[in-house]
Amino acid sequence: AGLAGPRLLGRAAATGELLTSEVPLPAPFQVPLPLPAVLRPVARDSGADHYEIVQRPATAEILPGLRTPIWGYQGTFPGPTIESRRGRTAIVRHRNELLVPTVVHLHGGRTPPESDGYTTDLVLPAGGWRATHSGMLDPDAKVTRGVRDYVYPLRQRAATLWYHDHRMDFTGPAVHRGLAGFHIVRDAEEDALPLPRGERELPLMITDRAFAADGSMRYPSRDSTLSTVPGVEEPYVAGVLGDVVLVNGAPWPIAEVSATRHRLRVLNASNARRYDLALDPPPPGGPAFTQIGSDQGLLDAPRAHDHLPIAPAERYDLVVDFGRYPVGTEVTLLNRTGSGSTAYVMRFRVARRGAEDSHIPDRLSVLEPLNRTQAGVTREFSFRGAPSGDGHGWLIGGQPYSPSRIDARPRLGDVEVWRFVADLHHPIHLHLVQFRVLSRGGREPGPFDAGLKDTVDLRPGEAVEVIARFDGYRGRYMFHCHNAEHEDMGMMANFETL
Ligand code: C2O
Ligand code: CU
Questions:
Q1: Distance CA 467, CA 128 (A)
Q2: In the chain, how many domains are there?
Q3: Is the model's pTM score more than 0.90?
Q4: Is 22 among the domain residues?
């Protein structure tokens, strides 16, 4: 085993991982920041809010003047935002009007297994599909045709969740074409805090793409109809990266803000790109960002950061006080790990004064203490490239993904420590559970590891321990690398709560 074999590295180098656009890139900071529409329930009853989403092909004007084919929830990218209350069930009926099967996963949701978007629980296209690859189906898969009702009890604290496609081997291309949206959970605990709200609360979904001359988003993969494309190289060491940074589907947008505190719900929905966010100019008088929440909601207390690394699928809930800048200032959200066109993300223009009505309390929430002494079991999983010559690109514990293999069976309600070791960067996501980072590189958790998380970024050669209570529901769930190309190339496994 060891690092990705020379063959993989050679292939990736030959095909190029950073895709560049074949069209001239527009000037940045021209397009106003779009906010995804909030989806209205089609019905509400005492038990649940009912929603309907159609997954369909559409065309979007992402770069000004260019028509880009997408796959969209409701035909939009990002999909519409769903807003829910803690403890109130949301039932989302998805109708698949695409030409390929889909699977919907609510990322960060504490969801019963039959609605979690298990990777082989396909929704076949409503218009029919010739299932030439039915052999890949898992005998336990629950396949539906056309529609499926996903039931989300949402017995969980307020948090920025998101939903996206999760089909086995094809998550990367499907999400890349646009199948991703926010699902925000709110609750009374958070409502009681004087945090910025209303138009001072902005969901920011960050992705990167490259555009072909015909307007399509470049994705170097097997094609969408499952046919084999001769000559297409599949393994990518870095995953698919583009040269255009989109926020809520717009290239390097600009948002006008008042000189007041704003809450930014930042989601990295990129297939593979990590960002290291910073503000330019930095605000006078202290760090740019006050982190109030992580993947799974509020921290116990706010933390200040002057920059913020964010890996695929992670969320950070931040407050930025634009009141520290003079009116008229243009503040750029930078990506310190990018270069050229990927070195910046978006811009804020501090357009006017505003009455400040928020502040950040010193105590935000109370988190259940979890410590090593509560854990009955410690498990270890390695995340590594396949040895050269193996047909799969990426492995967990030396094995590529199989729906029929269960690698861990925690008993419902038990606390366990899971130790992860990595060859390269891998953002590791566990379905169902909320975990805390217990150690990183043999030391205390890092400055960005606070709070309850569902995705943790491993760095090359580093071991990370997380601790979680495996409660909620019995059943089969996945855990995997959230670099979508690594995931599709085998870096996924199952656990089952008993
Ligand atoms: Cu965001 Cu298993 O996924
Ligand atoms: Cu990975």
A1: 44
A2: 3
A3: yes
A4: no
